[in-house]
Amino acid sequence: MEALGQYIGAGLATLGMGGAAIGVGNIFAQYLSGALRNPSAADGQFARLIFGFAVTEALGIFSLLVALLLLFAV
User: Fold this and answer.
1) I need a surface site. Which of 3, 17, 18, 25 has the fewest CB within 10 A?
2) Could you confirm whether the keyword Transmembrane helix appears in this record (predicted)?
């Protein structure tokens, strides 16, 4: 019964990875949309694009880490 709870908890923790994938797509879509509307401002927004990408990917990696901790450390 305890193993079942670990598997369910790990599965729920990995849902954050799906949200990270959607978040990365939205970040790049909004950047591309803004760059096409105002190409001269695209270079100034590139650093924010990379920062948003890094934060979103970090959230996905953290959810994977929580899932692995639930499976093997608890």
Assistant:
1) 3
2) yes
